[in-house]
């Protein structure tokens, strides 16, 4: 049994990790921690775990000591010393935060406050989007688990950019996320009566996930890609739907569909829907799946790609476990096979 | 592997059975049927199953032939011939509908149209609420899976009535159910813009689950119990919260809590919350759990019990699988151990 | 034009008062205040008012000085000095908080922290539930606007208790309120991802509105009435549905319906629905209406009354304006005639 | 008093017209009709009107006879004979359906089944988007009230295209609509448990509102404009948020903001939000307002415009009343001044 620990287990991504790891046949949840709730049982914070998992929340050091692999789900800036401690102790570190996602320190400085404390550490970090970087993930000790929006955008554009189906310029990414993406911290925009029956964009063109999306798309395209990214906040708990607009390079919809279907035919977690079907966040809830649907506006020759993921699973905790599986040589979908609820 | 089949697999309870059985380690889903969608893949109806379970929907006869145990999730009145066919062929029949729940034919006639086609069949039927009737379920061939409201009400009142904590008269049961309880059939009261931001009672005092609740409570109390039952429709997908009001027989809240906690201490699926906590439908979603919280209005000496279940799991498909486990000698919670999502 | 001011205009009840008073043909909104947002425009806090009402928030003293009638929508304990100042300056004071609702100081002390600073002030206070106390309201200078739950419960029971339709003992009041009832202050139970798809009771038997409900019902019945009251939190923005259970004194449903219909036939804001119909919060949203539906469980002889109000209108701001109309000799429904949205 | 009638009063747009016209000081609601519910009171269909407006639904002929101005809210294809009858009888006809929105018959044939029965009738039709076509509306007898999506898109792009702020090619329009846009007719995609917690695109690039949007934008630009339009279905009752992406022609965000603010400074119903603010559907609910927010992605030089309207008010019934006001020489906002609810 792999001993896994979670630092920051009481945030939404943290407790989703708990849910998934409790169901994983080859993982034992060795320790969990929380700064805010240290000493309490996690089931006091989340009564859904009452009688199921009543473990007491400890501190980060204990988690590192007891675990073979440490997941951290923390605000940005805190993971760097933890990663160092883990790697020093010979543990695998999977960071669900943003500290190791961007390879370029200047870009990091521009979008986050603070820089790279230890560059060698950042050089070891592998960006944990398995559909694209599985090769590097296999041997990684330090994995930067991708952001939720970047996951949905990269999977939507990966075959299109790589296979030359769409143009590399003028890509528009219009994303809509459920409320858990904003976390468990109280804020007016996620106060029930404010968000319910409401809908708006936020951080249009200036969201921190923009450079992360561009880094991955540039890797795929083999050249510097710039995109326009606008996130919106949906009055639902879970899910991201991303609608991508890209200029067609002259293909028919059926050919585009064929390219995508072939490309992802062996992907455990990406399903290309049939022509005429639409990706919907409700069909991937609680699973690590990404549904992709393809559409073509013929009169402007624009490819429209929509991708749906559960922001807390494929967009966070599930993908982190997928990375664990790869690192430990398990089947990629171990512990992640649960069927989606249909409602 | 136990071969299980589902007749009526495309209704909400049917597809929830699919979800649960696909995750059951000792069950193989042998066949599924649907009158409305025969010949189609179930994943065309529910895209959440796309690439996960793409089985074609057949007919009832095929399901019976291929299965050791047949679940039927159908409108009332249709299960009787199916039950006969199953028992004749030596199969177990677990009915999620209402045909075999009421033991008294006159009561059945009063609340449903039609009577008992074959009384010997009804004599064989066992009411499948395992926390109360596990002894009879073990040897049953024909199980009447309880209604969702009756499950939530009976579990809330079982220790109270059996142990003499509350009076047997004047019990009020005020229940609130999510929209899936009304099924997948289109109706104005479950049209999105009508139900969203709305809330009302329905069938106050005249819901068909009233006699079913009374049958079970009378079994518990050892005498004829009459209750007042009012259901309400909640603008959520899943869950029933039932608030029960019963006259206290002189106990302190801590004593009542002790009685309930002791009573259910070995129950796999019933958790009595700590004093001061409240049962909430969100904490039992997608699980077979029933959360119970206990409260006392001292100035009127009224016990207030709230119970929360997922109407589609403990209130339907999960309980049906719990019954399967009991009949086949498996641990009661086999295939039902999935941790609840926390949001 | 009557000059009205609002102290505490940026809470949900306060801004609902703004909405209603802006539409009132005989009222001029003279000044508004907020401790948290003094100096800002209210439309910065509520963009729904942008370009419609961009008034700057001042302080309480300014509001009192500029107004003929002062509404206060504040946490309990703060209204007493304001009331004194208003009455001293010859202004009408309408308090949407709890400070003056309970006539008995011991009861107040038991449920709230603090007592009556000035008893003569409390003797002048009139409980502003117009359907019951219109006679006293007419000449009042200090009006205690009722709580939302007490309004819904009292209107449901008023004819039944007064006309001797139901027993005076054993009354159960099961209420369900939308999220705005918990205010605009951030809290975990009204964080979107916690409340959405959730539902539970809270403060069962121990909510501060219990003694307020009992005070009014005792006035109606002419004797001390004790009730059991349990509130629940609904995942909707607006509305309270209250389900009342009371023992029938031997009447048929049609007779009960007749009594209620006759009783409320001239009430501007109470509508008794036809037999078979159910009160629904969606049908009274944004209006001062109370819908009442009547049901009878014949086999236990229990009368079931459901009442629906908008918690922020008839349960707060609308009722406060109804009180203003009565005090100033205007038609009771002046400024409150707006038709409900149907969705 | 202007005598107004509504043909198709029981659809969502129809009953919203009822709500608005009942509050209009210079309009008398002379007659209403419904094919499905003829002979019933409208308050039986919509209990929100119970005791407020209990008028009986008649037929189309009666409505035409009794009215000076007839609103029709019907499926496409039915309005043409009604328009003819109205104009023949000297009545004003305001069509909320699609029959008269497209000026080009070939385009109409391509997107709708059927053609123009009477071309002279279509030549008389004026497209009723007052912010753009007020001059023609003034003298119109036959007004084609715009679609909801086209209204939100045209108002977002009007100043930008007219003043040369953005390029005329490559415009992307990503819209998200509440469920009432799909009407009151029952359908699986608006069944509560299907839409709640779900979100997806539909008719990507092939929605009937595409040619209507292009017709208006081409009018503005003075040349043929092609756009890419993708609608999505939101789990809320009301509102459309449209996010527009257009190439900047070299302006700073503050200059773009200035252009828009100046342009709309006298518009009764269009508010340009301050820099940094975001248009949100919750802030325009129940009103005829359109909120517009402006953003600039500097690194790709893309202007991002978001516009929020209530799809049933500015997107349907409210705009129809705005048109009535213009035709009858009333202030444009007569009967449309109601303040938005803040939640």
Topology:
The structure is a homotetramer of 343-residue chains.
Chain A: E1 2-7, H1 12-22, E2 27-33, H2 42-45, H3 60-66, E3 69-72, H4 79-88, E4 92-95, H5 105-111, H6 119-124, E5 126-127, H7 130-137, E6 142-144, H8 148-162, E7 171-177, H9 192-195, E8 200-201, H10 209-221, E9 227-233, E10 240-247, H11 253-263, E11 270-272, E12 290-297, E13 302-309, H12 313-327
Parallel strand pairs in A: 1-2, 1-3, 3-4, 4-6, 5-6, 7-9, 11-12
Antiparallel strand pairs in A: 7-10, 8-9, 10-13, 12-13
Radius of gyration of chain A: 19 Å
Using a beta-carbon cutoff below 8 angstroms, give the protein chain pair with the largest interface and the number of residues from each chain.
A-D, 49 and 49 residues
Main structural class of chain A: alpha/beta
Low-confidence stretches of chain A: none
The overall strand count of chain A is 13
Number of domains of chain A: 2
CATH topology of the largest domain in chain A: Dihydrodipicolinate Reductase, domain 2
Helix content bin of chain A: 25-40%
User: Per CATH, which architecture of the largest domain in chain A?
Assistant: 2-Layer Sandwich
Helical stretch tally of chain A: 12
Broad shape of chain A: globular
Oligomer: homotetramer
Overall pLDDT confidence of chain A: 97
- Which homologous superfamily in CATH is the superfamily of the largest domain in chain A? Dihydrodipicolinate Reductase, domain 2
Query: What's the main sheet of chain A like?
Result: 7 strands, mixed
**Main sheet strand line-up of chain A:** 8-9-7-10-13-12-11
């Amino acid at each position: 049994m792999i001993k896994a620990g979670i630092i920051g287990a009481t945030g939404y991504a943290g407790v989703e990790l708990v849910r998934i790891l409790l169901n994983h046949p080859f993982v034992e949840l060795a320790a969990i921690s929380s700064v805010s709730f240290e000493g309490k049982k996690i089931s006091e914070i989340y009564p859904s775990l009452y009688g199921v998992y009543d473990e007491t929340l400890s501190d980060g050091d204990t988690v590192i000591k007891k675990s073979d692999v440490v997941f951290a789900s923390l605000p940005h800036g805190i993971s760097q010393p933890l990663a160092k401690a883990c790697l020093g102790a010979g543990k695998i570190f999977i960071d669900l935060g943003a500290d190791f996602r961007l390879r370029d320190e200047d870009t990091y400085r521009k979008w986050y406050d603070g820089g790279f404390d230890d560059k060698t550490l950042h050089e070891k970090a592998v960006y944990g989007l398995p559909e694209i970087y599985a090769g590097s993930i296999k041997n990684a000790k330090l994995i930067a688990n991708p952001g939720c929006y970047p996951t949905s955008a990269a999977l939507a554009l990966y075959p299109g950019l790589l296979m030359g189906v769409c143009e590399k310029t003028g890509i528009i990414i219009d994303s809509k996320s459920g409320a858990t993406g904003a976390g468990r911290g109280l804020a007016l925009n996620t106060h029930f009566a404010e968000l319910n029956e409401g809908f708006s964009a936020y951080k249009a063109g200036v969201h921190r996930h923009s450079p992360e999306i561009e880094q991955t798309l540039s890797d795929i395209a083999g050249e510097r890609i710039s995109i326009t990214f606008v996130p919106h906040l949906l009055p639902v708990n879970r899910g991201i739907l991303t609608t991508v607009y890209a200029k067609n390079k002259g293909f028919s919809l059926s050919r585009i569909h064929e390219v995508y279907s072939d490309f992802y035919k062996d992907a455990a977690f990406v399903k290309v829907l049939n022509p005429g079907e639409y990706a919907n966040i409700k069909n991937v809830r609680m699973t690590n799946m990404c549904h992709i649907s393809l559409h073509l506006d013929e009169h402007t020759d624009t490819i429209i790609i929509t991708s749906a993921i559960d922001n807390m699973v494929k967009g966070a905790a599930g993908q982190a476990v997928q990375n664990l599986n790869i690192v430990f040589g398990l089947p990629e979908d171990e512990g992640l096979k649960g069927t989606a609820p249909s409602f």
